[in-house]
Write a structure and sequence with these properties.
This protein has 505 residues and is an alpha/beta fold. It has helices spanning 20-31, 65-76, 118-126, 161-172, 185-190, 193-198, 204-218, 227-237, 240-244, 260-270, 311-314, 325-333, 397-411, 452-455, 476-504; strands at residues 56-61, 82-85, 97-99, 105-107, 131-133, 139-144, 147-152, 253-255, 274-275, 282-284, 291-295, 298-307, 318-320, 341-347, 357-363, 368-373, 382-388, 422-427, 461-463. It binds flavin-adenine dinucleotide (FAD).
């Protein structure tokens, strides 16, 4: 594996009872193509590599949560003829831990889960990775220009309840899965979130709150986000408050050892089934029984290929023959935005709580978009994380640290902020293998007719990654769901292939 170490071990949780689905997977794999070994997970033969010219059952491209979940399902189902190809020198994709002193971590990418995100929560339980809640008690600070407003946030989004009820009712009226496929969706997709709010009596403060929410959730302004897309995310969450709030919401629960621990632990168990530093550049013969996957490290061959990447990353690969026209267009037009830079400022202890502050600073202008307490569960260190506008940060790390520390000191009126122990910055915009977070869909995109190509598998190719999930796309939960689905599709395909061979034998 790469240099990243797994975080502290979690509190063990009860192993969930064996499910019918898992038994089905095991049965399917054993039947599939007569290729599956019956050895228990963790043991068994090493994966076949490109060197011996053999054809694998499945190649998985990408060792993020989606790709590793798919790999884990194949492995648990008894299959030993697959390989995960990962471009980076680490696993986890959009989840990454900053390594802090004393073995502590702070998440540099995806971090929270919330109610309804059961797939990722189940995975954590199975991997014996515990969870804990972010501490949002206390006062937050809102800054605009030189103004400063201190408020008790309670972890809730403070907004006109009538407006929230209206938006929730509208979200509830959507079809729960793939709402863009419903006939009435086009009318909602014509409007941006900003258009819809403009047609309501929305106070300036509420508008600002919406703007914050949109920037933090989708990385862009309300004018760039389709009303249909925003409503669909609210629909998944079960309400605006659950999507955008903190308490009992999608920004509340963290993993002990950080979210990357999920991928690290899966990769640890998969051992040689994961190849790091193996970027895929070309996929050839995907319309044939055996597909070739090209990397600088050699050519790999398999009957099925799970592509666990966002469509915009797929667009960077060469496909031979060319993909169907609608899939090509989808990949080309898929919205990208360099997700924000995320920083972690480390102190000896979270002293801000004693002064009644929760570490949250929301700024309309300036480099800090939103800061929050991100201390470890035992609060052995004090950590303030922040989403920052990288263009407004000095390039020099020492200057960047000083600027943020000064903002914290002024906002929370405490000079101790000026003397951090550590400063970390992860600029996702500089990462060639990450092009977006939750993809912001402009009005019209969802109903443009391209969306079916997102999940329509072609030839040997099985599209995966959080973007393809029916629920919680863009989130870690969606990634896990998409990995389960991809593994199931691959196993079913192998089973069919095997059945075909048996008939002709
Ligand atoms: C700053 C930030 C904050 C976020 N906050 C949250 C949050 O709080 N809660 C939440 O649920 N979600 C959050 N997310 C989103 C969440 O992290 C992602 O939805 C999820 O991790 C995506 O997993 P994935 O496996 O689908 O894709 P990825 O994690 O993108 O995995 C794709 C993998 O493929 C690899 N790859 C790319 N190209 C190639 C190639 N050519 N060949 C081989 N390998 C390749 C990549 O290196 C990567 O490892 C956040 C994301 C970011 C960036």
């Amino acid at each position: 594996m790469g240099a990243d170490a797994a975080g502290p071990r979690a509190h063990p949780a009860a192993e969930p009872p064996d499910s019918g689905r898992r038994r089905w997977l095991q049965g399917a794999a054993v039947m599939a193509s007569g290729l599956a070994a019956t050895a228990p997970a963790g043991a068994g033969p090493r994966p076949t590599t490109q060197g011996d010219g053999e054809v694998l059952d499945v190649l998985i491209i990408g060792a993020g949560l989606a790709g590793l979940t798919a790999a884990r399902d194949l492995h648990r189902a008894g299959n030993r003829r697959f390989l995960v190809l990962e471009a980076r020198d680490r696993v986890g994709g959009r989840t990454l831990n900053h390594q802090l002193r004393d073995g502590q971590i702070s998440e540099a990418g995806g971090q929270w889960i919330g109610p309804g995100q059961t797939a990722v929560a189940d995975l954590a339980r199975e991997l014996e990775i515990g969870t804990f809640k972010s501490d949002y008690r206390g006062r937050g600070v809102y800054c605009m220009g030189s103004g400063r407003v201190v408020e008790d946030t309670h972890g809730l989004v403070d907004m006109d309840p009538k407006l929230v009820a209206e938006v929730d009712a509208l979200a509830r009226s959507l079809r729960p899965v793939r709402p863009w496929a419903a006939p009435e969706a086009a009318a909602l997709d014509k409007l941006s979130m900003a258009d819809w709010l403009a047609s309501r009596q929305v106070s300036e403060q509420d508008l600002l709150t919406w703007q914050f929410a949109s920037v933090l959730t989708m990385g862009t302004s309300l004018a760039q986000v389709s009303l249909l897309q925003y409503l669909s995310l609210i629909r998944y969450a079960g309400g605006f408050q659950t999507l955008e709030g903190q308490k009992d919401a999608a920004q509340e629960t963290r993993f002990i050892g950080g979210s990357q621990a999920l991928s690290l632990r899966m990769a640890e168990a998969l051992k040689d089934f994961v190849r790091l530093k193996t970027p895929v550049t070309r996929i050839a013969h995907w319309d044939q029984p055996v597909t070739e996957v090209h990397t600088p490290q050699g050519v790999f061959r398999a009957r099925r290929v799970i592509v666990a990447l966002s469509p915009s990353l797929c667009h960077r690969l060469a496909f031979e023959p060319a993909l169907p026209a609608d899939r090509q267009r989808l990949q080309r037009l898929w919205p990208t935005h360099g997700p924000f830079a995320k920083t972690a400022m480390v102190y000896r202890e979270p002293f801000w709580f004693a002064k009644g502050y929760n570490g949250q600073i929301g700024c309309v202008d300036g480099p800090v978009i939103w800061s929050y307490d991100n201390s470890p569960p035992d609060q052995r260190l004090g950590v303030i994380n922040a989403f920052v506008r990288i263009g407004e940060m000095p390039g020099d790390p020492a200057a960047a640290q000083h600027l943020l520390a000064t903002i914290y000191a002024e906002a929370m009126q405490d000079q101790r902020f000026l003397a951090p122990l550590e400063f970390h910055l992860q600029d996702w915009g500089q990462e060639p293998y990450t092009l977006s977070c939750v993809p912001p869909m402009a009005p019209g995109f969802l109903t443009s007719g391209l969306m079916p190509a997102l999940t329509r598998n072609v030839g040997s190719l099985i599209w995966s990654g959080t973007e393809t999930a029916d629920l919680w796309y863009g989130y870690m939960d969606g990634a896990v769901r998409s990995g389960h689905t991809a593994a199931l599709v691959a196993l079913q395909a192998l089973q069919t292939l095997h059945a075909g061979r048996e008939v002709s034998a």
